[in-house]
Amino acid sequence: MNDLIRDSLDHCVKCTICESFCPVAQVTPLFPGPKYVGPQAERYRGVGPSADASVDYCSGCGICTQVCPQDVKIAEINSRARAKLWEKKGIPLRNQLIARPSVIGRLGAPVAPLANWALHNRSVRRLVQSTIGIHRAAPMPSFAGKTFQTRSRKHTSPSPDAPAVVYFHGCGTNWYEPRLGEMVVAVLEHNGFRVIVPKQDCCGLPLQSNGNFPAARKYVQRLVANLAPHAHAGLPIVANSTSCGLMLKREAHEILGVDNEDLAAVSRSTYDLCEFLLRLHERGELRTDFRSLPLTVPYHAPCQQQGHGIGKPALDLLALVPDLHVVELNADCCGVAGTYGLKKEKYAISMAVGERLFSDIKATGSNLAACDSETCRWQIAQAADVTAVHPIELLYRAYGLGAHHG
Amino acid sequence: MSYDTVVVGAGLAGLTAALRLAEQGQRVLIVARGVGATHLAPATVDVLGYTGDQRVESPAASLPALLASSPDHPYRVVSDAQLRAALEWFRSHCAGLGYEGSLDENLLLPTALGVAKPSTLVPRTMSHGDLRAGGRFVFVGFQGFKDFYPSLIADNVMRARLPVPVTARALELEPPAGRTGDLGGRVLAERFDTHQLGDWLVEALRGKLDPDECVGVPAVLGLRNADATWQHLESTLERRVFEVPTLPPSIPGMRVFNELTAQLRAVGTRIVLGARVVGARTSARRIDAVEVASGAGTTLYPAQSVVLASGGLASGGLELDSYGATRETVFDLPLTGVQGADRVRFLPNYFDTQPLSAAGVSVDASLRPVDAKGDPVYANLHAAGAILAGAIPWQEKSGNGISVATGYAAAQAICASSTAPVAEQVR
Amino acid sequence: MNVLEAEVLVIGGGSTGVGVARDAALRGFSTVLVERRDLADGTTGRFHGLLHSGGRYAVKDPSAARECIGENVILRRTAADCIEDTGGLFVSTPFDDPDYGDLFLAGCTATGIPAEEIPVAEALRREPRINPGIRRAFLVPDAALDPWKLVWGCARSAEDHGATVLPYHRVLDLELDGERVVGARVLSERSGDELRIHAKVVVNAAGAWAGQIADLAHCKVNVRAGMGLMIAMNHRLVHMCVNRCKRPADGDILLPLRTACVIGTTDVFVPDPDQTEIRQPDIDLLLDEGEKLVPGFRQARALHAWAGVRPLFEDNADVNETRDVTRSHALLDHAARDGVAGFLTITGGKTTTFRLMAEVAVDAVCQQLNEIRPCRTAEVPLSGSESNAMYRVSARLAAREPVPQAEEVICECELITKSRLEKTISERDTVNLDDIRRLLRLAMGPCQGGFCIYRATGILHGGGRVDGAGANRALLTFLDERWKGIHPILHGDQLRQSRLDDWIFQGILDVEHLPS
Predict the structure, then answer these.
(1) Which residue from A331, B45, C2, C202 could staple onto A357, CB 3.0 to 4.6 Å apart?
(2) How many Cβ atoms are within 10 Å of B180's Cβ, its own excluded?
(3) DSSP strand pairing (C329-333 vs C343-348)
(4) Is there a contact between C446 and A14 if contact means CB atoms under 8 Å apart?
């Protein structure tokens, strides 16, 4: 049979474990829960769109699929039902817009000071909320001005003959957090790699989660085309954005149904950044010349990172740093789920979902938190009032690499 | 990453084995397809409730007879002392839930149908439902919560086979203010945790109770603060209050899961959910590494020992295909209690003892799965929990008892067999 | 003893019986219907659910085919709420002779069935799961028919027009006045009371049991029971009614029925229509045939198996293959045939043509009573189908949508709310959860009652209709009853479910030790 996602509903034994973990269903009755809209409602879906618009309240965090003991692809069923829903209703402008980070980037980055003023100006945000529907208080990153792509072109590898690794930095790094990208490159180079930064655009994930599968497929296939030659050449691809990495590893195939050799090769070659570094360490190839970092840092493994099925490699890596005390947080989700928490009608849900995480972070008393995913970091930084960093930044500092940069 | 022990499965048996190993200094990884039966079964540790039709008053006293009649029973590999140690270990590791009871006598707790069911260790929040004490009971339901029918419970409790007189009645309360409609146990638990519902319940019961009545409520008194809520209810209502377990999802079971996983995290155990173990790298009858599906490929986790706690037919640890072949799904281990090549024929009456009821892997004294000759299949593979052959736990009322006992025993066997001192393996 | 007076007494509460009762009531006859068990508990409630276009009979049984297409058109108009317009697809799989397609098309043309050959690629686009090796594909106006809705819609409509419908009333005897049947003595299975019903005409619509009823009037009616096995699969593997394009045989129909899909059937003579033991080889046969139609079928989840009996009427009983017996119906006027007046038997046929059978039977009633009253069932819609809107699979989901959690959903698989359940229990005045199951589809989904039957028992008890002992009995009876349909197909995912259900009923609730 050719429909693995729908077929997985056959495994559902109605045990309700997914619903007891769903962070959204706990805080709002608008979402009837992953079992309800997933394997249960799927039996009521014939040809044509689903009758249940409430599936749109699924944030797509994917926790249901992770905790399901029976291998039901719950989040994936929901994702496809959302896409079918919007296929008929038409996707609103707002969702079209926030689903295209690279388009926004191209518009905003050249005029970064102005754009950033607008992004953080109350009157503008109120106007944006009422016209477009992006909540005025939702976390917004700042445009960096000079993108990571631009910066990386000026960068020359210290050891051109070293083994190469391909860096898939994603949109967040490119437009908003180019410093993070530089740290990733520095850490990889410190470990003896030559870092290739291929030309790249959005992976299509935000389009997928906003229900625009056709556009998402185009984006991901374009990205795959850029990465495939490296994958076929046997080079590893590392991604610091956990959700975009997951798109390449699994979702492009499992959810969007893209099925070709290039994608398969890219999927096999793609590693989450921390996963990649931990594998190096297992082979004894990771440099462990870490300096003492006497900090207490709460760490949140984002939902999409958990979707990789690789555990929490960041914890094992950070454990190598002397005097660094990492507190593993146990709240499931920060609530933002990519673009979910930006939406006017979902912002309050998003904040309620994240409340437990925010208060756990605050309880540690630290003004620094670590998290692998960019949108989650922005959400955490704003809601918990801390500086939120990718774990690689802690490694970068522990390696003492910051000294070389301004 | 290499580990001292990889535990397959995150149910009660897997969590018990993992924590027991981790607290003895082992580096442990838990890999599971998802959350286990903690979330389905009531959190009572039922060691043995029935042998045949006979209700068990004292598990300690009845176990020898059980083992005599079911020589393949998983309890065979656990001595009385070890079973007591396992229960004590469990009690001390769920200290926040205040488990009560002992191997020497079963409590009789009302089920959500009002049947007096034998249980051995029970969380304090349930212990005052012990019907052996007799007395007057009120079962209280909340409108909107569909997994609790107080009048049916009361009706059946009145007619239960008990040594002492019991009376029972029912109260159905209006739904709590705020969120109405279809109220799940999880949502109610959340609201008890934030104290809103504890006070509401006290208010709603004011003037409706006789002085000597005990109050039974569905087991949704909270996930994080249930014990405190229960104490608050007992002291404010000035009477005994107890929870009655309901259909899945089991809120009390989630408390156990949360207690044990918090301790596992604290000792550095890694838990990977949503991951399927697809096989193993083996050499010379040893498992060298466990192979886990990830993304488009697989990840190898080298390990000194492996605990298989993947559950029985309900959890997918065992599978029966449409041609009648039964299979152990992780390592394709030999099974006992299964039928031959012919299609499995189930019997036409539901309550007959059905084929495959006691199917599973047979183990040696170190809980290592054995082949037909009785030799361990892998020298470093141990099994625990519902995957073990020889028990019909839902009929015996022995599910969690077997899981705790064999999870604990598997960990002990691994520690005993470790050649290098455990402490040196710690990084 | 209570006595009821009627012009027409109908025996049998399947589609034919309720069809006759409704037709007679619509023509203004005072009518009583008796059924020994629940309505639609015999053949109708156990058929596959295919509203035939007639395609299946186009080659070998043209008259049956013509009847089917005629009734198909009428029922779409009058029983819209019972029908989902899925469309039908006849496909030549690699196991079938593609040349049969030519015979098929010719047969359809000759019998007036609109059939159209479509490209294989188009068929695969519409039904992506079916065997990619199919060589030909034909569209026909098959549809999915909900038998319970149909029967209850007819019954309610009959009652609206003055008929009395009495389920759980078993005929003990026919009353004869000389060579004339004048009524029946019946037993209420619920109250234990006997009842006498006087009627001018008695219509025997007992289907496969019609021979047993005719015996009571000393008439010999040879109705043989052809047992057919069906398996419901967990979800819609196909969205259209898919038939193999070949001579009708076992396991060649797969159709969507509500949230499930059904594969059928087999066909073997059984000596007693009440003895329908499901045999394992027949299960395997259906699974294997399913595999030919939808590769991977054996890995898909089977929910439930059941067997129904076709009433196969044969005046000269020398036919050994049930598939050779015509699927057309037979009306027997026992006055002409056996010298017993006031007594008609209508049998044979199939659910698709139930309305026509009823029309023919009530025409004969008119003749016996010397009345000229035209049939109205081809125009008047059934109770529940007045709006002419055909059923859609998403209906229950859509109904929940405005506020999905507005009230408790008791059966989550089939989306049955508490108020709906309470209303039905009260309307039917029943304590039998199996009756509720058929009416509402309670416990017909994946968990087969694993979660909802505990709830339904609590609600039954809470409504005051039964005491604790009665509630316990209802629960235990249901568990035993459902097991009959589950155990023959227990493997894979459904065994996993069943084991979880064991944990719920025995491990958590301890039902084995319920006080009696």
Answers:
(1) A331
(2) 15
(3) antiparallel
(4) yes
pLDDT at C319: 45
Percent of the residues in chain B that have a pLDDT greater than 70, as a whole number: 96
- Beta-carbon separation of A44 and C239 below 8 A: no
Check: CB of residue C352 under 8 Å from CB of residue C373.
no
Structure tokens, C334 = 């026992």
Closest partner residue to C398 (CB to CB) among A14, A51, A70 is A51
Alpha-carbon gap, residue B416 to B20, rounded angstroms: 13
Q: How many CB pairs under 8 A join A and C?
A: 96
Burial class (CB in 10 A: 0-12, 13-18, 19+), C107: buried
Min Cα separation B172/chain C (Å): 10
Q: Which of A1, A10, A51 sits opposite C401 (nearest CB)?
A: A51
- How many Cβ atoms sit within 10 Å of the Cβ of residue B357? 18
* Contact with chain B for residue A311, Cβ under 8 A: yes
- Report the C-alpha gap between A214 and C363 in whole angstroms: 60
Three-class DSSP category at C312: strand
The 10s digit of each residue's pLDDT in B207-232 is 999 999 999 999 999 999 999 999 99
Joined together, the tokens standing for residue C188 give 């209420």
Q: Do C507 and B147 touch (CB under 8 A)?
A: no
Residue from the list B111, B149, B314 with its beta carbon closest to the beta carbon of C499: B314
Closest CA to A309 of C83, C73, B292: B292
pLDDT at C188 over 90: yes
For residue A305, the chain B residues in CB contact (below 8 A) are: none
- Of A268, A373, A241, A167, which Cα lies nearest the Cα of B295? A268
Looking at chain B, which residue has its C-alpha nearest residue A73?
Answer: B274
pLDDT score at B421:
46
A339 touches A309 (CB < 8 A): no
| pTM (two decimals) | 0.95
How close, in Å, is residue B188 to chain C by CA atoms?
14
What are the Cα distances from residue A266, in Å, to A165, A238, C117? 13, 11, 43
Q: Do C507 and B393 touch (CB under 8 A)?
A: yes
Question: Counting one residue from A and one from B, how many pairs have CB atoms under 8 Å apart?
Answer: 105
Q: Residues of A numbered 15-74 whose beta carbons fall under 8 angstroms of chain C's beta carbons: which are they?
A: 15, 29, 32, 35-36, 40-47, 50-54, 70
Nearest to C9 by CA among C39, C38, C33, C37: C33
Write out the two tokens for B273: 């959910």
Residue with structure tokens 């007819």?
A: C154
Q: Does residue A31 belong to the interface with chain B, where contact is any CB pair within 8 Å?
A: no
Low-confidence ranges of chain A (pLDDT < 70): 1-2, 403-406
DSSP string across A114-150: HHHHHHT-HHHHHHHHHHT-B-TTS------SS-HHH
Tokens of C488: 């023959």
pLDDT digits (tens, 9 = 90+) for A345-370: 999 999 999 999 999 999 999 999 99
Q: Does A43 contact C451 at a Cβ distance shorter than 8 Å?
A: no
Whether residue B254 contacts residue B305, with contact meaning beta carbons closer than 8 Å, is answered with no
Give SS3 for C84: strand
